[in-house]
TrEMBL record:
This is Pirin. SUPFAM superfamilies: RmlC-like cupins (SSF51182). It comes from Cryptosporangium aurantiacum. Fe cation binds at residues 82, 84, 126, 128. Residues 43-148 form the Pirin N-terminal domain.
Length: 322
């Protein structure tokens, strides 16, 4: 970690200093530690949003840090075919490889900083698996999967797939070059990421060298979350300590400050943080398994449609129709 980097961050566009008089810094309102578990066919995850009120997360609803794990030969695992409706899945691969295929014809291989963005909308089936050569050899596996809610008016949008190469993300540097920021979706300080979103959001992966600090502008109408992929440091205007696997929820304001501790563990030489924010949808959320709707009746209908084969069919080359 990280997958996308540069030799000289100072050659990149730099964030302009914020105005401490005009721009109000955000304070931390809660700090939680992600419990560990297993997903799909048995790959390890950290449940980043566990125990956090959905109202604080809105428009995000679920996030797993997948790995970081070093697989032996024959050990890599993925997910079987499964359905989704009512939201978007964002899979960001930091290290390793993952192949995606869906019933709408989308799919591809993502690796080393790539992102796959799937809008489930009205319904889709998909599968995520490590490629055969990785299963045979084993190797490092580390990524992030985020679920982004859709408003009521877009719950049944046409499914779509975006294949976002790591080389396409917008790269920025802090003023002193101590922090590298990758804008995956939305925009930061006028620099837009490549991800096209139905719900207005921003996703940034920041890497800070030991002792470095960065303050980024953040839309006042967005919520603000900071999750530590690896390393230790502080977050927020008052420097709340946080470390690997912890999520900070921040209050209203104009800026987010993150600082890396001067000394880091050898296995995580830098502080890697994902900054997330979006415009809250503020609608009822009914979730069950792979479906995110507004009412329980809509979730029940999603299960009925899945069992009736109305969410798509598994491509013939990979098995019988579902």
């Amino acid at each position: 970690m990280p997958a996308v980097t540069v030799d000289n961050p100072l050659a990149l566009p730099r964030l302009a200093p914020v105005d401490p008089v005009v721009d109000r810094p955000r304070l931390v309102t809660s700090l939680t530690t992600a419990p560990q578990g297993y997903e799909g066919e048995g790959f390890p995850v950290r449940r980043a949003f566990a125990g956090v009120d959905l109202r604080a997360l809105d428009p995000f609803i679920h996030m797993d840090q997948m790995g970081e794990v070093e697989y032996g030969a024959g050990e890599p695992k993925g997910t079987p075919w499964h359905p989704h409706r009512g939201f978007e899945t964002v899979t960001y691969m930091i290290d390793g490889e993952m192949a995606h295929q869906d019933s709408n014809g989308g799919g591809g291989l993502i690796t080393n900083g790539d992102t796959q963005w799937m809008t489930a909308g009205g319904g889709i089936l998909h599968i995520e698996t490590p490629p055969e050569h990785l299963v045979a050899s084993g190797g490092l596996f580390h990524g992030l999967q985020l679920w982004v809610n859709l408003p009521r008016t877009l719950k049944f949008a046409q499914p779509r797939y975006q294949d976002i190469r790591g080389s396409k993300v917008a790269l920025l540097s802090s003023d002193d070059g101590g922090a590298l920021l990758r804008v995956i979706a939305g925009e930061l300080a006028g620099h837009a990421g490549p991800g096209s979103t139905h719900t207005p959001i921003t996703i940034v992966h920041a890497t800070l060298s030991p002792g470095a600090s960065v303050t980024v502008p953040w839309r006042r109408d967005f919520n603000a979350l900071a999750y530590v992929l690896g390393g230790s440091g502080t977050v927020g205007a008052k420097g709340r300590p946080f470390h690997t696997g912890q999520l900070a929820v921040l209050e209203d304001g104009d800026t987010i400050t993150v600082t890396a501790n001067p000394t880091q563990e050898s296995r995580t030489p830098n502080l890697d943080v994902v900054l997330l924010g979006g415009q809250p949808i503020r609608e009822p959320v009914a979730m069950a398994g792979p479906f995110v709707m507004n009412t329980r009746a809509e979730v029940v209908k999603a299960f009925e449609d899945f069992r009736a084969g109305r969410l798509g069919s598994i491509p013939a080359a990979d098995g019988a129709a579902s």
